[in-house]
Amino acid sequence: MAPPATIPMTTSQSTAGTGAQSQPPIATPAFRAFLSRLSSSIRQGFSQRRPWYELIDRSAMARPDNLTDAYSRIRRNLSYFKVNYVTLLAVVLAFSILSHPFSLLVLLGLLAAWVLLYLFRPSDQPVVIFGRTFSDRETLGSLMVLTVFVVFLTSVGSLLISALLVGVAIVCLHGAFRVPEDLFLDDQEPANSGFLSFLGSAATSAAAAAAPAVASRV
């Protein structure tokens, strides 16, 4: 009598059979820590938001005398309304993406690929596609190539760039026409802590939250 057929098992299946199943990426402590730090950074950033009525005060609108005056106003308004301006950019970007469902699905798929396949994937679960096991370096390289392709070589990239340009134009237009003489920065806030420094601090917080997961794969 012929012996019974056997089904080959991968490493992850063998581990599951012994009862030592790994947590899914979204349930790992690193992912929960990332969400916690990200939400904390967002709350801290929104605590610096200026009242919206100051942003849309029509009595404070006036045409700048020249380009130098417009540039000076933009710099001061960026320092004062930086959180409000970031919110406006986010609204413009979100509206553009939501109005194009295909681009939204592509971006969500790209984000899911980064989260599930690299950033928060348990280190004991290799990526296996069509029977081939990919190392961490190969996975990272593939995700980077995919990101460059999506952002720069498809309509998704043009949509994002167009939305950002529209948002920046709105911010600069408002900053040039908003008279900043009645605006006062907090005493504890440096005068040069402008728009780019706020974005830099937000990016640093997000990078610091994801750093442990990334460092474990280097």
UniProtKB/TrEMBL annotation:
UniProt cross-references to InterPro entries, sorted A to Z: Prenylated_rab_accept_PRA1
Biased composition (Polar residues): 8-23
Localization: Endomembrane system; Membrane
Cytoplasm found in the keyword field: no
Highest taxon listed in the record's lineage: Eukaryota
Membrane spanning stretches: 80-98, 104-122, 143-176, 196-215
Pfam family, one: PRA1
One annotated GO biological process: vesicle-mediated transport
Region Disordered: start-end pairs: 1-23
Keyword Lipid biosynthesis carried by entry: no
Coiled coil: none
Chief location category: membrane
Entry's Gene Ontology cellular component terms: endoplasmic reticulum; Golgi apparatus; membrane
Topological category with respect to the lipid bilayer: Multi-pass membrane protein
Keyword terms of this UniProt record: Membrane, Transmembrane, Transmembrane helix, Transport
Record family assignment: Belongs to the PRA1 family.
Job of this protein: May be involved in both secretory and endocytic intracellular trafficking in the endosomal/prevacuolar compartments.
PANTHER family xref list: PRENYLATED RAB ACCEPTOR 1-RELATED, PRENYLATED RAB ACCEPTOR PROTEIN 1
Protein name, UniProt field: PRA1 family protein
Organismal lineage: Eukaryota, Viridiplantae, Streptophyta, Embryophyta, Tracheophyta
